[in-house]
Amino acid sequence: MLNPYKEMFMKEIVKVIAKALVDKPEDVSVSEVNGASTTIVKLKVAPSDIGKIIGKQGKTVDAIRTIVTAVSARTNKRTVIEVIE
Fold first, then answer.
1. CATH of the domain at 78
2. Does residue 65 contact residue 49 with C-beta atoms inside 8 Å?
3. Are 17 and 66 in contact (CB under 8 A)?
4. Are 38 and 55 a contacting pair, CB within 8 Å?
5. CA–CA gap between residue 32 and residue 42 (Å, rounded)
6. Which domain range does residue 79 map to?
7. I need a surface site. Which of 28, 42, 61, 62 has the fewest CB within 10 A?
8. pTM for this one?
């Protein structure tokens, strides 16, 4: 059985990273959709900050995904990050 605090922790990790990268941290919102074997983390930022989250050639969002994948390995669940406009 998964610890509910670990799932909440995943959402908080994404929120803290995103707020550190953007110009308008008050516009950052993170939501989760939990499935049986996959968790989808939806990240929404201000339209002017989308480029900062994605980064050049997607390197920033790939780095966020790498961190989340490493953390989610402990929960035996796959985690997917979606950046929403």
1. 3.30.300.20
2. no
3. no
4. no
5. 6
6. 4-84
7. 62
8. 0.84
pLDDT tens track for 21-65: 999 999 999 999 988 889 999 999 999 999 999 999 999 999 999
Q: Check: CB of residue 43 under 8 Å from CB of residue 30.
A: yes
* Strands 78-84 and 29-34, bridge-based pairing: unpaired
Q: Which DSSP letter does residue 76 get? A: T
Q: Which of 19, 35, 44 is nearest to 79 (CA)?
A: 35
Q: Rounded to an integer, what distance in angstroms lies between the CA atom of residue 37 and that of residue 39?
A: 7
Domain count along the chain: 1
| Beta carbons within 10 angstroms of residue 54's beta carbon | 16
Six token digits for residue 75: 């929960």
